[in-house]
Structure formats: C-alpha cells, structure tokens
Amino acid sequence: MYSRIQKGFQRLLESIVIVLMVTLTGIVLVAVLYRKMGASLSWYDEIASVLLAWLTYYGAALAALHRGHIGFSGLIKVMKPALRIPFIILSEACIIGFFALLAWVGVDVLIILEGDSLVSLPQVPTRLTQSVIPIGAVLFIIAEILGLPELLREAKRPDGFSQHEIPAEMETQTEAAMEVPGK
Amino acid sequence: MTLFFMLFGLFALIFINVPIAVALAVVAVVAMLLTQGVDILPNVALVMFDGATKFPLLAIPLFIFAGAIMNTSGISRRLIAFASALFGFIKGGLAMVNVAASMFFAEMSGSAVADVAALGSILIPAMKKKGYPRGFAAAVTSSSATIAIIIPPSIPMILYAVMSDSSVVKLFVAGIIPGILGGTLMMGVCYWFAVRFSYPVEEVFRLKRLWFTFKDASWAFLLPLIILGGIFGGIVTATEGAGLAVAASLFIGGVIYRELNWQHLRKAIVEGGISTAVVMLLVASSALVGNYLTEQQVPQQLALAITRLTENRYMVLALLNVFFFVVGLFLHSAAAIILVVPIVMPLVNAIGIDPVHFGLIVTLNLGIGQQTPPVASVLITACSVAKADIWEVSRVNVFFVAVIVAVLLLITYVPAIPLFLVNVFYG
Known about the structure:
The structure holds 2 protein chains of 2 kinds.
Chain A: H1 2-36, H2 44-65, H3 74-78, H4 81-112, H5 126-130, H6 132-155, H7 169-178
Helix pairs in contact in A: 1-2, 2-6, 4-6
Chain B: H1 2-15, H2 20-36, H3 41-50, H4 59-72, H5 75-87, H6 93-106, H7 112-129, H8 134-148, H9 155-164, H10 168-174, H11 176-197, H12 207-232, H13 238-256, H14 262-295, H15 298-309, H16 313-330, H17 333-351, H18 355-369, H19 377-386, H20 390-413, H21 416-426
Helix pairs in contact in B: 1-2, 2-14, 3-14, 4-13, 4-14, 5-6, 5-12, 6-7, 6-8, 6-11, 7-8, 7-19, 8-11, 8-19, 8-20, 9-17, 9-18, 10-18, 10-21, 11-20, 12-13, 14-17, 15-17, 16-17, 16-18, 17-18, 18-20
C-alpha cells in the first residue's frame, strides 16, 4: 500500500514535469518562429517565466522524493547511528517546518492577490500562477514524509546511509550511452 | 551580529544534511523575522516565486533537455567514433579521444556531469579493456569534462550571467580560447602518461575511416553550428538557442539517425526536470538571502573592507581565487555561484575587473571544485562509472587538475586570453 502510494505520487509528479518541460520548449520554439516572422508574442516572456517557476516547485518535490537536492551529507555519514538519527530527525523537521510555513504564507498571498492578473494576459489571474507556492510546498512535505521511513531505515545501518551524491542526470544518460543500436 | 548567526546557522543546517536551498531559506526567514517582524512573512512566498522566474535561466532546462536527446539518439557514439579516427593513431590515443570528445560534446550540452555520464560510460570501459588503469581512465574523463565546461554553451556561465547581470553571449565567447587551450594541454598530459607507461595506440590512421566517421557524424557537427552560430551571430538569444538545440537534436536523432529511444528520452526529460528544479530552488531561496543581505548592505561592506586592505586588482583576484577554491571544496558549483557571486560583485566592480573576465575565472575555479573531494560531483560520477576508488582516481587526477589550475592562472593574470575574441566581436 505504502509503495503504491509512493509510486503513484512519483508518477503524478513525473507527468507534471514532462508536460512542463515539453510545454516550455514548445513555447520557446513558437516564440522564435513568431519573432522571425515579425510578430513577437507579447505574453512569451511572462508565461515562460511562470512555467519555469512551476517546473521549479513541481520538480523540487520530485527531487525531494529522490533525495536529489544538493546537500552535504559527509558529516552525517561518519556519525554513529545513535547520533545520526536525532540529527536526521532534526533535519527533516527543519525541511518540513519551512515548507509548512511556505504553504501557509503562500495561501495568505493568494488571498492578498485576489483580483490581480498577468500583465500580458489579463485573463490569467495571478492567483493561478502563484498557486504553485502553496501547492509545491505541500507536495514537497508529502515527498519528505513518504521518503522518511526509508531514510530512517538507512540511518540505522552502522555502515552509514546513502545520499544521492551522484547527480540525477547520470543514471539515464549512462544507461542510454551504453546502449548500442541493434543489440 | 545577525549576520554571524546567519552564517553559523547556515553551516549548522548544511552539516546536519538539510539541503542547501532549504538551509538558505530557513536562515533568511529567521533573520527577516528577527529584524522585521512577522508582517514580512508574505514576502517570503512572493520572493520565492519571483526568484524562480528569472527568464534567462530558462536556457538551463532546455540545454539539459537537448543534451538528453543527443545522448539517447547515438550522437555521442558518433562523436567518439570520429575523434577515435582522428586521434586514435597517437600513443595513448584513446585518452586523447576522451578529451576531444568531451570538447565536442561540451559545445552542445553545457553540463560537465552530463558529459561524464554520456561519454564516460562508453570510453571508460573501452579504455579499461585496452589496458589503461581505471584510475587514469576516470581521471581523464572527469577533468576533461571540467575543462570543457568553459567551452560554450555552459550552464554555470548562464547562472553567473544572471547572478552578475552580465552578458551570457560574451561569456560564451570568452570561454572559447581558454577551453581549446585547456583541452590541448590535457591531451599533452595524456601523451606524457602514454609514453611513460606505454599506453597503446587505438587504431592505425586511415583517411577512409576518418572520412566515413566524419560523414556519419556530420549531422551532429551541425548542432554546434546551429546553436553557437545562432547565438554568436545575434540571430537568437541564449535561451532561444537552447530551444533550437532541442528542436535540432530531435530532428537529427529522430528523423536522420532514427535512434531516438522514447523510454530513455522520457526518463531523461524527468531527470532533466529534476536537475533544473534543484538548481532553480537554490536560485529562489538565494533570492530570499540576497534580499536580506542587500538590505543590510553586506556586499558593499565586504567590498569596502577588502578595498581598504588592498586595491591591487591582482591581489584581489588572488584572494577571490583562493576564496572560490575553498567554497568549491564544499559547495556544488551552481550553489556556489548563486550564493557567492552576488556578494562579491560590488567588490569586483569597485576594483574595475571586467565581469566577463571574472565570470570565466569563477566558472573554471568552481570547476576545480568538481574535482576535489569532499563535494566533487563530476569526479564522483566518473569514479562511479569506472568503479574506481575516489583516492585512486585523485592520485592521477592531480596532474589533470594541475592543467586546469594553470589555465585558471593564465586567464586570471592574462585577461587578453579570454577577452581577445570578446573584443574582436563586441569591442
């Protein structure tokens, strides 16, 4: 059940990230084409920037699920489990606490921004674009909570716990590069 | 005093494994609460959103996306085959192929880690098979990827340009000569190792094979022409160039080579999205810290303190180089650029250092950090591919890192090297 929830959550975030990446690329290409035809799109900069912010927060939640955020685990790794576990709990409390605060103030901002809209596309409310802050923060918290049991399990091991120090892009690129067509 | 507690808090959080992006945001929020009260809290959400909407950074996900497509569509393999036909006849040729392929690949991908992952996975096993020690194979792959990062396009340069408010195109142009110089010097080191330890020749030079591999890779060679030609020619911006790179690599990989693997591509897009988000979250949270530090006038105070000490630009550059080297030991290059560049820019401007010149120094200096443990993303990736111990690789890597240091000193104290082409094109 737990792993099904985790997998489902991961798939949901992955789908959102794929849609955002493809849309961003599409918008940039269409904008170049329009500009070259002498009809620049007025909303291009603003919408692309908003999509980048969305990619940031949805992707950040996915990165949290993979424990892929840049950090320094050297000190925690060399600690004994009895010392390591309280520090890991403290670290998780800081992360979850910060995103809980961000979600809360993010909702506050949505209330403040009622009636505002984008400059280049007045039909798009700013509340919609800014909604990524509270939603992204909640998704980040869920990702942290889902990863917590595995993190604690690893932290209990005397030989240390594995932080993903090898950047994420390595895995698939390595796999892909090694594949020779026809084999 | 608040600043001291901020720094202490930041390091304490980082040492207990809080991600740097979150640690930055936490200390900034605490400092804001202490100095400005709870009314400031809605600003946290606004700044965290605005910080992630920096338009020029849009080039980052696009270059990562393009790199993933190139890698899943056989482009890296063709580049290696061509480099092998070109350099393989020299003693230690496969090591030189590694350096040359890194330089080619760098012209398209912009990320050193992507470079190691893509090329190292093919070349490290091939080198080991030919009898090269795995430590040497990993070291040459790792260091050549770092020197290649100053060859345009370059993701750290895009980050620097945004953080320092300087021209990304000029930075790209400034990287060309030092990048080629560094690559050539690295090939020299490979040759020295090959002669000393009798490394083998890869293949006999055959013009016919060179022509065949060139023809096979010719579409791939069009990519840097499209990307860099478009950007340098002023036809497209860096962001648009990155978009074009995606379109061109999709066309070449999907239509011409017909090797696009959709499953790999899907995974690569997701991983590209994650890599982008990791950097962008850092950018967003550094905006919070940046706002606070600017209000407290910290960068200006730092500039004043150092200019009181010395106004000699060479001394200041030496100090900054040492500072960035130490920062690079402990911080990922993206984090270091985002965190430190806005703080030191007032000093750089006060001393009269060209921001483009300084950008190249920062990029290459932090590249050394990618090779030096404890935080050494590129070295760790190469070690992982080679299945070699980090110290075993580092013992050989010292020689290659020495080349990077030599290039760094050259570009630091002979600004004409990076700025010559910039002055020719934009002077």
